[in-house]
Amino acid sequence: MNERGKSISRQISELAARLERLEGRLSAGTASAPCEQNPYGDEPQRFCTMPEVPERTFGPDVSPFRARLILAISKKWVNGTKLRYYFFESGNLSAGNDQKDLVREGFEIWRNVGIGITFEEVTNIGDAEIRIGFLRGDGAWSYVGRDVIDVPGQFERTMNFGWDLTRDPRGVDTPVHEIGHTLGFPHEHQNPFAGIEWDEEAVYRYFGSPPNNWSRATTFHNVLRKLSSQEVEGSAWDPNSIMHYEFGSGLILRPEQYRQGIRPRGGLSERDIEQVRFFYPPLDGGRDTKLEPFKSEMLSLSPGQQKNFVIEPTATRRYTMQTFGQSDTVMVLFEDVNGDLTFVAGDDDSGTDLNARIQARLQRGRRYVLRIRLYSNYASGDTAVMLW
Predict the structure, then answer these.
(1) Shared-domain flag, residues 245 and 328
(2) Has residue 21 been placed in a domain?
(3) What's this model's pTM, rounded to 2 decimal places?
């Protein structure tokens, strides 16, 4: 069977599995009847409620173009990062393996795209960047991208599933959506280039009704609020994105073709795959550039691109790694332990007049990897990195 045939067969199998889960819900008598408070004739769904975090602001010396590049890229991880996830095992934050398996399948779907980010399930919460709970009634949500590492408290959730995933007709699409947030992607229906004109009071009534029961502030934050054009990459709107809500009729006034609703096809869209591969391209397996002490290396990157370096110290001492040039970058240092990269330190100089700088004690005979992603060059000239 050729690759196209395999793809079609896989899609048919996934569709059959979704229909089987939905039929199971109906035969068990657990399907929800249309809510009496919902006048739109569509069965109400539970939706993702993104946590609110303070918006990043910039000084007057940061141009709008420079700010746009920083905001569009800053929540993305450096490519090649291994994201470790942990399931809470006890109390009201835990769930059975049937729900955990759906989340595991969600990570596998993103991995199968062939990206440079890898995932690993861990049993020690202290090793995890992603901490997953199943607190009922708290909604489904995830922090966006690198906001995960700023969540205070080692034992706080960074992702939650607040209902039984095995009874959700969307199946694995719900975990795939939340993992998409963790990879740094916002809600697609809030794309400012979508051109959606809402019947705002109808939207407030719909999301304020069961099963969501959202406040007006929550509805505004997750639906009506348009993202700044600085926060999205490119201008294309993708109504089939996994990051897009499904909307029933009666909520959208324009574009007219969506007055009867928007119903994404399900699964990752072509643009979802294009975008995740842009920020996290497959690692080519080639040999990274070796960074030698007191020898500068030019980066020669475009916004969003990344360069990787290997450091193999010949003496155990404290080293400094720093970028040079008028640019915004994020720089992360890992130790390579038998092929597994462990975070050592990082620095992000974006929006400042400083350069990214890491100081760390490196051990002779060990191997380290330094990864640098460029947000923008805000003056003429290139950017370089040096170790000393």
Answers:
(1) no
(2) no
(3) 0.82
